[in-house]
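TIGR01244 family sulfur transferase
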Amino acid sequence: MNIRKLTDTLSVDGQIAASDVQALKDAGFRAIICNRPDGEGGDQPTHEEIAQAAAAAGLEFRYIPVTSGKVTDSDAAVFGAALAELPGPVFAFCRSGMRSSTLWALSEAGQRPMPEILGAAKAAGYDLNGVARRIANGGRTPTDTGDASFDVVIVGAGAGGISVASSLRARKPDLQIALIDPADIHYYQPGWTMVGGGIFEAQDTAKTMGSLIPRGVHWIKAAVAAFEPENNAVVLDGCRVVKYGRLVVTPGLKLDWARVEGLEETLGRNGVTSNYRYDLAPYMWKLVQDMKAGTAIFTQPPMPIKCAGAPQKAMYLSGDHWFRTGVLKNIDIRFNNAGGVLFGVKDYVPALEGYVQKYGATLNFFHNLISVDGPAKKAVFEVKKPDTDPTTVEMDFDMMHVCPPQTAPDFIRVSPLADAAGWVDVDQSTLRHKSFDNIWSLGDVMNAPNAKTAAAARKQAPVVAANLAADIDGRSAVAQYDGYGSCPLTVERGKIVLAEFGYGGTLLPSFPKFLVDGTRPTRAAWFLKERLLPPIYWKAMLRGKEWMAHPEPLKATVK
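Tokens:
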């Protein structure tokens, strides 16, 4: 925590944890304002967790969520009113402190000289010149000029963004490239299932973002507010503008915990956890170890989600531990899936069904989690079977692993880049935008019908890099993406069903069948997942080394 003072009555900073609240009280703060909506990041506690800690410490708490980069004048008015009402001094936070600073600046614009506002913000480490420009232009951020300009701008420094940047640098070292991402930490999210299963340590799945940004690539540590493709402009938090020659869009998904009533209040306690959050995966392993009898529920929401196999991986690894420790006979395992099949590619289902039987799990299809009462340990599911009226069913649980509903981030869904469903609209082969020729997208937010996995991004990044480089050279697209995705289904400790497939469920194995038969559980696939894939991710994929991912040449279209 790095408390940044704006005035005698207001300080700001980035995301805090519940454990930081007592330190804030000890520092003299009397109230906390949270400006960050829940679900923006995989390591983010909910506002309810902070609110409970604040109440326990005797501090006032206000939740004034503002979508990243979407600070409105009405938001600023609400923020200003809260500052007037709350006992001071007040501590406000968002992801980085920029939103809270922007809210303060806009709320003070009519009462304090602009140089004083800018000076206070600069002393705290925030550049609010874009806010001043917005105020001077009657509330609008002009994009005909920018604060910075680059040949290529990449939005999102996750698996896809860093990989594309590295692949582009390898092809065209002289390109001026910027990566835009506000996060301090980069996570190897495929490892969180293994953390929840007691195989990996959580800290081994995280590295500082600064250590991973490719040499020669400019890192803009900010959140994106909006896209103006007609002006080749990206608007950032603080109303700053970045211009681009070509744009790559690859942020992660939004985890929509709030869509399930009561879930935010009980996450990380009352036996409710999720491997979809960095800080909750270790709690998953604790729950599994402590459980000797009772009901364990594993949920899967409607698609699309990141790594569609992850919810059942949690079930298999838990069942395996209970089997090995001799308590499985005392545990009622239930897999409640909003969809109608165990796995979307039928070739892998027989092997998975064998493990469902081994662990005695009950499969409840068309069951979508809609509410949770943590203290009472009750969950309510909406049951929507085909050709029947929806009903609800209540289930008691002793522990529950929740996969949250997921959507594209708000700044994507409302942008000109999105299709009617809110996903970036691309050609599924070249990954080029259908309407804007100088924009490409990959990873979780684009609308190609493929699995949303890190393995998919590993194959997509070279395709985008090759096609973007060809475009710079005045050539048409040269590479194509075949929909490849991989889901290593950890069915027990030491064995994995390695599902690899492309568009339409076509099997796309990476290895000969005599080495790894993906349709059955193998130790070779486990070795790949546990020992080889993490270093391949950190040392090859993120560094632009396209091992087993060299882009496939674009096939000519027959007319």
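The chain has three domains: 4-136, 148-253+408-553, 258-407.
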